[in-house]
Amino acid sequence: MASHDRGEALVVGAGPNGLAAAIALARAGVRVEMRERAGVVGGAVSSAGLTLPGYIHDTCSSVFALAAASPFFRSLPLAANGLAWCHPEAPLAHPFDDGSAAVLHRSLDETVTELGTDGTRYRRLVGPLVREWDALADDVLRPLLRFPSSPLLMARFGLSGVRPAARLANAAFTTERARALFIGLAAHAAWPLERPMTSAFALVLAAAAHVVGWPFAAGGAGRLAAALEAVARDAGVVIHVNTPVTSLSGPPLADVVLCDVFPSRLASLGDGVLPAGYQRALRRFAPGPGAFKIDWALRGPIPWKAPACRGAGTVHLGGTAAEIVSAEREVGEGHHPDRPFVLLAQPSVCDPGRAPGGGHTAWAYCHVPNGSTGDMTTQIERQVERFAPGFRDLVLARHTMDPAALQAHNPNLVGGDFTGGAATVTQLVARPTWRGYRTPVPWLFLCSAATPPGGGVHGMCGYNAAQAALRVLGAPSSAVSTSS
């Protein structure tokens, strides 16, 4: 345990970024207290019995490519505190109506072979990012408004990543299989795919699949939250649950305060403390589209037409690239697609303890307009049935969460937004303002997914904010590298 003589910090919110900030500060010798409104830590990283006894479901976050790749998480003794990664046979499969599927394998070479005539084009696009992954991760998981540690690599990444995914897919590939696979990856941006910078999401996720995979937390996402909590407590962090912070007005609650909250929430907490202009800027930070999510308890494995889907942890359901682009455009225009792009995960294909007696668990979500009250159960299940006839006959129970339910579970999921803010060019570069983690108040910092590098479970928003806070405290940073 570190000697805590470097000042005092309060971290508001115990999601993965708040926990990362608390751990980084405590390791640097700061006395740290955390206050969390919910009864458990973890935020959107949690698991629960949402359907039937014995079935374990990941409530929100579930597939942890960025957690496995995170420079900071890799520096922590998470395995010693109960976390084990569970890898499916393949990270991703993308089925088509003819019963075939494109597969993103852990092996770059296997994926190149899988894509046939587009394999060499895929290697040319993704291969350099895989070879230099440590340098890439170090740069893309840090603030964008800084000089990169690997300028040539980031220039190469930027030339492709800044392009709209719909354009890059058509320019880079000649086959529908490769285009659809790439577009499905880019759709994780939850943003219209004709918009700039959506290709970056596809490139990072593809490269991560080859380097670290797209694993699940064995036993449920809650195991990751529990491991982070154990590391934090071992570092001396004092954690209070069921303890909301309602205001930051009055004397500072600590030498530095870091908030793992959405920007609009920080604006409210900062009444009487933050300048009015900065509060307005925080409230202008726009959330992205919402999500409608379904968890299923199944009597058996999903009967995919494409055999390659049976062992894949994640399955993208959207058919052709053009169909996915159209569906995401509709969401961006405020509509509910009749054929939505559906992201489905089946954790029990590699983690059988998630369901009893040969049963299985699966979940899926589609993007919807932020704050939508529509029920997308029929549309989602129709897409699953399209590629897995007989799926509905296997459903023993289902649990749905619309945007309001997602936000009720975790207030940072504003309007059901999983991404920490709309993926506009401005909001990707300056999150949530040009100040990033800092605010006009010297002791107050923001450390949520609304700060660089943005959404995903990687803890780097919290870690980066902690480094900024340590500079204010005059304490040495707790630097990590991707080779940790």
Give structural notes.
This protein is globular. The chain has a domain of 180 residues: FAD/NAD(P)-binding domain, CATH 3.50.50.60. Helix 1 links the parallel strand 1 and strand 2. It is 35% helix and 15% strand. The longest helix has 14 residues. It contains 18 helices and 16 strands. Helix 1 packs parallel to helix 11, helix 5 crosses helix 10 and helix 12 packs antiparallel against helix 13. The model has no long low-confidence stretch (mean pLDDT 94). The strands form 4 sheets. A 7-stranded mixed beta sheet has the order 7-6-12-13-14-11-15, sandwiched between helices. Strands 9-2-1-10-16 form a 5-stranded parallel beta sheet, with helices on one face. Strands 3-4 form a two-stranded antiparallel sheet. The two termini are 19 Å apart. By secondary structure, the protein is α/β, with parallel strands linked by helices.
